[in-house]
Design a protein that fits this description.
Layout: E1 3-6, E2 11-15, E3 20-23, E4 29-33, H1 39-51, E5 55-60, H2 66-69, H3 72-79, E6 82-85, H4 87-94, H5 98-104, E7 125-126, E8 137-140, E9 149-152, E10 157-165, H6 167-173, H7 181-192, E11 198-203, H8 211-231, E12 236-237, H9 238-249, H10 255-274, E13 278-283, E14 286-291
Parallel strand pairs: 4-5, 5-6, 6-7, 10-11
Antiparallel strand pairs: 1-2, 2-3, 3-4, 8-9, 9-10, 12-14, 13-14
Helix pairs in contact: 1-3, 7-8, 8-10
């Protein structure tokens, strides 16, 4: 864990739970793609940089989930580096309590205000800033989260953030977090058509060809949608649907999984309703979902 792996002349990744990209434009300086899940991750990253004699110019955040920005505060405090982010992700990075609040749908209790869902705040600079390295392409990859992006480096290595998960992850956890199902499917189409020397997803193995894995992720989305629709053959409240999803996939409920899977199921229901496959009825002061 936290092994530095080279994938091209100027690009590496640090192998950790959410892979951290490393772009080395010259012998002295380095840019990170994300920063790990907490201060300890940031410390381990800095040790790798120091060992190689690299100066950290900036962290390029793909999105604001805590496991991708958790090392920002430590590394920024230690090196004075910039943290680049954009859109709504920048707001969540600057005000990280927004993540558990968004997932829960209200003020999050202490069980949700921890490092896995709420990073420490960091100062943020927009991608449009004049000092952002112009040789790096920012690629919109919306769907998994609000304004998630990936990055294409000058030697054609693409860091894909969380837009695809490994087979092992999907087979173990079944329901991966998705904010906007329609946008996510469009992103999968985009990624499937990309060409690169190497693709580096945060939660799957680096590979020069990811089309088969993209299809596996797409198939999983459709299978989850079908399961939710089958649950809604008769009108069902959200909590009943969520219970059936957990039981059907053999998932264990706790506060963290309740909000992550629950938020994702709500997104599926919205997508199904917008596409005319599900609708709602209000009955006895309850909102019930039903297949159309």
């Amino acid at each position: 864990m936290y092994e530095l792996i080279r994938v091209s002349e100027k690009c590496y990744y640090i192998n950790c739970p959410a892979k951290i990209g490393v772009y080395v434009p010259d012998k002295d300086n380095v840019y990170l793609v994300d920063s790990g899940n907490d201060k300890d991750a940031g410390r381990k990253v800095r040790q790798i940089l120091d060992k190689n004699g690299w100066h950290l110019k900036a962290i390029l955040n793909t999105h604001s989930n805590a496991d991708h920005i958790g090392g920002n505060r430590y590394l920024q405090g230690q090196t004075g580096c910039r943290v680049y982010s954009g859109g709504i992700e920048a707001a969540f990075t600057k005000y990280p309590v927004l993540e558990p609040s968004f997932l829960y749908g209200g003020y999050p209790c202490k069980d949700l205000r921890h490092k896995f869902l709420m990073a420490q705040e960091s100062d943020v600079t927009d991608f449009s800033d004049a000092e952002f390295p112009k040789e790096i392409e920012v690629i919109p990859l919306t769907g998994h989260f609000l304004d998630m992006v990936g990055f294409r480096m000058p030697d054609n290595v693409v860091f894909l953030a969380d837009c695809i998960s490994s087979r092992e992850t999907l087979e173990k956890y079944a329901v991966s977090f998705i904010y906007d199902v329609g946008a996510y499917l469009e992103t999968l189409d985009k990624v499937e058509g990309m060409e690169a020397t190497m693709f580096v997803p945060a939660h799957a193995e680096a590979s020069a060809d990811i089309r088969e894995l993209v299809q596996f992720n797409r198939d999983k989305v459709w299978s989850i949608a079908d399961r939710i629709l089958s649950i809604c053959e008769k009108p069902a409240c959200f909590e009943k649907i969520l219970q059936e999803v957990f039981n059907g996939y053999g998932l264990t409920m706790n506060f963290e999984q309740y909000v992550l899977v629950g938020s994702t199921v709500r997104s599926y229901l919205s997508w199904l309703k917008d596409n005319g496959k599900a609708d709602v009825v209000f009955q006895d002061s309850m909102l019930l979902w039903q297949r159309v």
